[in-house]
Amino acid sequence: MIKNVIFDLGRVLYTFQPRNYLLELGYSDAQADKIAMCTFGSPLWAEYDRGTYSRESLLKELCSTHPGMADDFRRVLGDDFTEKVISIIPSHLEFFYEVKRRGFGVYILTNFFDDGFAHCRRRDAFLGDADGIVVSAYEKLVKPEPEIYKLILGRYGLAAEETLFIDDMPENTEAAKKLGIHAITFTNLDDCRAKFEDLVRI
Questions:
Q1: What is the pLDDT of residues 159-187, one digit of tens each?
Q2: Residues near 73 by Cβ (< 8 Å), separated by ≥ 6?
Q3: Nearest 5 degrees, angle CA 94-CA 96-CA 98?
Q4: Which of left, alpha, beta for 31 (phi over 0: left; psi -120 to 50: alpha)?
Q5: What strand order describes the sheet that includes 182-185?
Q6: Diameter of the chain measured on Cα atoms
Q7: Of these four, 3, 69, 95, 153, which has the most CB atoms within 10 Å of its CB?
Q8: pLDDT in tens, 108-124
Q9: In 3D, which of 200, 142, 135, 138 has the Cα closest to residue 175?
Q10: Partners of 132 in the beta sheet?
Q11: φ, ψ for residue 102, nearest 5 deg
């Protein structure tokens, strides 16, 4: 029986659309694609989520790797980056609270860079309503590494067979399933609700 639900943040409870942000800054489609590939699509970004880099050290590494784009990186990854790119999806947040009101434990497991999560924690009250949160940058672990799933289970005393994980990345949900955690790959809210109801009836 499902007793606990672990939510991802990006594209589950939060928007994360950096390419749209680049277009809003006035970059062309081609420019936006190039900048996105060199930042958000780069292995360096995954290490940023892991906590290997601070914002400053990430910028230094990006500028060193692509010196011709240094001004673009500094413009894009300015102090207001998180505020511009990451925001709550209201209907998805209502689902989070619906799950909580029904008596399930609600937790968050997220790949998130440290300064960005710190900004969201100050801004968004719902994070304080979770029963527990594990953030990749604080643990030096990232999904889909099995250690980060074991960490959240162990830290909060969750049994894998009683836990459901919701994430938009198939590789992350598959990793959870390998540890005996139930999982839904999030594509849209209606689909997620239907699959959630099927699982909690088991």
A1: 999 999 999 999 999 999 999 999 999 99
A2: 35, 38, 39, 59, 62, 63, 66
A3: 70
A4: alpha
A5: 132-135, 105-110, 4-7, 163-167, 182-185
A6: 56
A7: 153
A8: 999 999 999 999 999 99
A9: 142
A10: 107
A11: -80, 0
If we measure between CA atoms, which residue out of 77, 24, 19, 17 comes closest to residue 48? 77
**Of residues 196, 192, 136, the one with CA closest to residue 13:** 192
- Distance of alpha carbon 175 from the chain centroid: 15
Residue count of the chain = 202
Residue 69 CA to residue 63 CA, distance in Å, equals 7
What is the structure's pLDDT at 102?
98
Contact of 58 with 66, CB cutoff 8 Å: no
6 three-class SS: strand
Q: What are phi and psi of 31, to 5 degrees?
A: -65, -45
Using CA atoms, how far apart are residues 2 and 49, in angstroms rounded to an integer? Answer: 29
The burial of 46, by beta-carbon neighbours within 10 Å (0-12 exposed, 13-18 middle, 19 or more buried), is given as middle
Output the DSSP codes for 107-154: EEEE---HHHHHHHHHH-GGGGGSSEEEEHHHHT--TT-HHHHHHHHH
